[in-house]
Every structure is written in C-alpha cells, then in structure tokens.
Amino acid sequence: MSARTLRVDWPACTARGLCRELLPEIVELDPWGYPVVTGEVTEDLLADARAAVRACPQLALRIVER
Amino acid sequence: MNAARSPVPVPDDILVRPGPALLRGIADGPSLAAHRERYGALPRLSLSELGDLVGDVGLRGRGGAAFPFATKLAAATAGRRPVLVVNLAEGEPASSKDMALALTRPHLVLDGAYAAAAALGSRELHVVLPGDRPVAAERMRAALRERPERLRVQEHTASPRFVAGQARAVVELLERRPNLPVTAWQPEAVSGVRGRPTLLSNAETWAHVGLLVLRGTADYRRLGTTAEPGTTLLTVTTQGSVPQVHEVELGSPLRDVLPADDGSPGIVGGFHGSWATAETLSRARVSVPGLQTLGIPLGAGVVLLPGPGSCPLQLTSRIVDHLAGQSAGRCGPCLNGLPALASALQGVVFGTESTARVEQLCGLVVRRGACAHPDGTSRLVRSMLLTFPDEIAAHARGGCAARPVEVAS
Amino acid sequence: MTDGPLLWYLNRGSGLVVLALLTLSTVLGVLALGGLTPGGLRGRGLPRFVTQSLHRNIALVSVVALVVHVATAVADTYVDIRWWQALVPWWGSTYEPLWLGLGTLALDLIAVIVVTSLLRTRLTHRLWRRVHLLSWGAWALGLAHGIGIGTDLRDVTDWAVLPTAVCAGAVLAALGWRLVLAARGSARPAEDRRVEVRA
Hints:
The structure holds three protein chains of three kinds. Chain B is α/β, with parallel strands linked by helices. Chain B contains 15 helices and ten strands.
C-alpha cells in the first residue's frame, strides 16, 4: 500500500487555482494564490485528484507514488 | 526591489592551508607533472573496484547534501551511456573550497572524474566552471589542457549567481538552457542530461574519489574516524581577513581551525546553514551526523565568523535580502515568499515585526519550489530565531547589543 | 433525401451555430484566464474550473456542429462539394473555391487543436500552447469563409448579419482583453514574470 502525494511543478504553476476548487480537502492557497498541499491523496480523493491533474491549465500537477 | 549585494562577497583571493591528504604538498604547485611525481600514474579501475573503494569508506558528496557517492554510482551504472559532471560552480559566496582545489589540486579532481569515466565506460565528461571566480576557472582550464587522456571534456561556465551550482540548474546549463533550476521528477543520477544517468558531483567529491583511486582505502582510512574516514575541506571566513580553506580530519574538533574563542557566534553551513553559539562552536566536531544532532548542517563546509562587533540579526537580514534577490524567479512561493520573508526580517531588526510572522513565512516557503533555495533560506532564519531570543527581544525594545541598527546598503 | 432544400438549410444553419459556439468557447477560454479582479475571481462568479470546463465542452459540441455542417454540404447535390474538399483546401473544388478553401483550412486547424487538446497530457505544455494559439486564426478563417461563401450574408438586411456581427464583436473584445492580460504578464510562464515584492 503506497502513499500518494500531489506534487506541483512549481516553475509551471501560474496560480490559476483550479486545483483548490477541485480538491479543497488537501489544497489550500497561499497569500499569492499558489497551492499549499496539506495532505496525502487518499483512496477516496483519488478521483478528484486525477480530475485536478487533468484540469490544471498549466499541467503543473502530478500524483506521485511514494 | 534592488538586488541586494551579498554581505559576504565572492573572494578574489583566498588562503589555502596545506593539509594531510587532499591538500598535501600543495607547495609543489598545481601542474600535472608535480601531481604525477607525487601520486604516480592513474590506475585503471574496473567498475566494481571503484564501487568497492567508495563503498568501503562510505564516501559522501561534498556539495552540501552529503549524499552517498556509492548510491549515485550505482544509479549511473544501472543506465545506459552515463554522463559525468564535475561541478566547480560553488554558488555560495562564503565557500571557496572548490576554488582552492582548482588553484592547488586540479588534477586530483580530474583524476577522480577520469577514473570514474573509464570505469563506467562513459564517453561524456563535463566540467562546470564558476562564472564568478575567473582565476579558478582559468586554472582549471589550464589543467584540462595538460591532460593526455583522449576523452574530450566539455567545458561550461556557470552564471554568477547563487543557484547556478544546483544540480538541476547545472543539467539545464549542459542542455544549453538557462542555468536555473527546474522541477526534477527523477534524480539526475537516474535521468539527467538528455535523459541519461548523470553522475554529477562537487569538485571536492571527485578529489576524494581521485585520492581513493590513487592511494587506496587503507591510506584513506589513516585519517578521520572509523565511522567517518578521511578528511573534508572547510572554508573559514572571519571579519577583516581573507577566507581560509583548511583540510580537517572528520571527527576532529571544529575549534582547531577557528580563531580564539571570543564568545561570538557564527554560521555553519553558509547562507543555507545555521547559526551556532560560541559554546556550540567550541564543542562541535567536524562530522555530518555529529553536527546534525546539534541541529547544524555541515553543508559545503562553510564557517562564517562575523565577530563580536556584529549583530546576528542584521547580518541574517542582509543575507536574506541577498538570497531573496537570488531567487531564479521561476516558482511563485519563492519569488513572492522570499522577498516577503526579507521584509518581515527587516521588521524584526527594527522592532516593528513579530517573530510569529517570520516563522509563518518560513513555513510557507519550505518544500514549495523546484530547488532547495527557499528551504535553505528558511533554515538560516529559523536558526536565528532559535539562537538569539534575547537579541530579538532587545531589538523589539528598540536597541541592539552589538551596534546601532543601520539600514542595509 | 439529397434533393430538396432540407440539407441546404441545415448546412446554412449549422454554419452559424458553429460560429456562435466557437465564439462562446473563445470568450470562455479568455475568461478562464482570470485576471478580472486582483487575485482572480476567488469567491466571486463562477469557479474557475467551471469556466474552464465550459470552454472545453462547448468547443467539443462545436465540433459536432462542424461535422453536421460539412456532412450536409457534401451530401447536398445543390452545390458540388466533394468530401475530400472538406479536408484538403482548394483540391479541385469547383464551388466558390476560395471561400470554401478557407473553411477547409479552418477545419484542419480546428482538427489539430482538438486532437492536441485531447492528448494534452502526452504533449509538452509549450507545444500544446503554440498550437492552441492558432484557434484565433481558425476562428478568423471560419468567419471569412462564412462571409465569403454564405448566402445569408449577401445583403446587410439578411438575417445572419446581426448574429455574425455580434460574434465578431465578442471575439474582438476577447482578443483585446487577452492582449491586456499578456501585457500585464499574468498569464505568462514563470520565467518571464517580473519580481513582485510584497512589503
């Protein structure tokens, strides 16, 4: 059972904020609009996490297995 | 924002002290002839022999991360057509050990790299020269011209900025893109230059490899401790003197290379390091795990001693101002967070900002970037908060024990 | 069924539908970039992922309308348009070859844009973005095709003139806003961004 995290490609991220909208359980925004990942991608969040990855306009998100 | 100058400038001149291993016999001069006179011909080692050498002594990288070299070597072995990189782009202004090696022992560094290239069967060897230390770069170029090996070395010059020596930034440079960090989904030892396994190590690390290849592990183990054999290079910078590079045995007391204890604190590990009280400095031993238990990273072996007349808060503030300007500007949290942190820190110096705000910003920038620039900056700031609560309280009341609070120039 | 005006009417109607849908998609695409309020539309108006999804889905629906438009043109015997002329511009076309060719070119561009967008995760972001910027050109070609070949745009009192003008106005406004955003730098990749200092 491997842990999954949401990793951000920081040079690609332009603070569009769609990930926060789609995955508010584990994504918050810092004062400048950039995502702060506050938790792991658990089984129940996996579908939403994948949607967030697909929705990111800059393709700046990846789900990484530890 | 004006890019704030480094409070510790990149030196034009350094003093290199002779040492027991890496810096042995530097009075002979840096020529290839003198090097061969002392060490003999470069043996040709097989990959497993090389692996045994570095594995036996547990050689760790000297670029700051202290990563086990044997692990990197194994990763490079696992892939096809590995690329080797000698990284002389020191980045950190307060570190001059790679410069010292370029000036006095370039062939020890190159022997390590050439031996590894031969063992790996690699046909691609790169040397990254410092962009802000032209004398060192020129000496290394001269040394490369002396080499008789058929393997052609590609020379590159790093840009004169703090993050230029970061591993991924170097890979970018080798791929003819701007010398700045990018996100790495895999370590460069697995997938680096053009997707190939890239054995990228600091110049001093290669010097240790060279020493092992030329002298063997028995000789290497004469110095240091059983757990940490060998030596390491330290750059000690004190107020008003030229930086000095010393070679010390691992496990030896740090105070052996420091000037007399005057009760003033210092920074160990450079701009991404930690503050240490005079007491800690006098007790510490030069050891990666040893210093770690004291909460201090050895890093690239930098010791900064500003002296008793210097205010640690003001120095930290100036360093962070400089580091904020050195951001590659590619990652939002760093680009925005570091200037905000610098501002808040200035506020603490002037007594107008709370440490809570500083701590909050530190937490906000850590692990949120393509490289460890914000993490290292945050480490220095947090160590300041931890080490100097009294000074911080004094500043909050409008005073400073060391000197009048001045505006950074 | 190939005789009689049904296919012809479907063709004309679907042509305007394609224009309207592509216009809507373009406007939504620019709105999805945010920048209307400092710090974006957080808390105000539609969530960004909704605007983004609408942009994508409406574009896909317009492809369906485009297929209807092309199919009816080819099937209808009133004008001589062969199926390959819908894919390769100016290849032996006899009916209004210039204007038809522009439409075919627009379709080709749209096809590339749609395919690259569907395969977005397998391409580099830079490549996808450069292809996607062609959508402005595709829209303009489509408009030119409609004005040149469209029988409902012959006279200024024709029914299609007002909707077409509204679409053109909307895309022009969207383009203007897009250029403002580009000048501000808010949609540019990180390397180009200026240093912002928050005191």
